[in-house]
Amino acid sequence: xxxxxxxxxxxxxxxxxxxGLGDEEAFRNLYQNTDKTMYSFILSIVKNPQDxxxxxxxxxxxxWTSAALYKAQGKPLAWxxxxxxxxxxxxxxxxxxxxxxxxxxxxxxxxxxFCPQLENVADRLALQAALQILKEEERRIVLLHASAGxxxxxxxxxLGMPLATxxxxxxxxxxxxxxxxGKE
Length: 184
Prior knowledge:
- By secondary structure, the protein is mostly helical.
- It has helices spanning 2-5, 12-19, 24-46, 49-66, 76-98, 103-108, 116-131, 136-147, 152-159, 163-183.
- Helix 4 (49-66) packs across helix 5 (76-98) and helix 9 (152-159) crosses helix 10.
- The longest helix is centred in the first third of the chain and has 23 residues, at 24-46.
- The chain is globular.
- It starts with a helix and ends with a helix.
């Protein structure tokens, strides 16, 4: 009976532990198991496919170099999402420093014209402020569903949660966002 219950494929956690020992084949398998979910998660944060691709490379490089530090908890994707989120926020900070617009830059352009850089920053700041009211799991679920287009079942599978829990947290998060944005 144990033979029938035991999966033939290694879990992401087993793969990550092997990656920590320098196993390149385990790293390839881990990448193949998680790349689509990771890309969707990163894209849901940065909203730019080129940035998402660059950050995804950085995430997997960090996973390769830091896998030995991973402590088995049954949720390797959550650990990887934390790395991804931190790298995304670092990119936002770097972009903010590089994208500061001076008064001279505003005078050169025609006033009243649509400025996508300013609009994107304002939208991103409003979204970040709204998302801060959510708990970490709620924020992850909302971003994966609303921005990355993942179905609730896919989110449940990738986060290792029951579907009912994902649906409940999503609905609760959407009510919180609705209340918050209604006040703003």
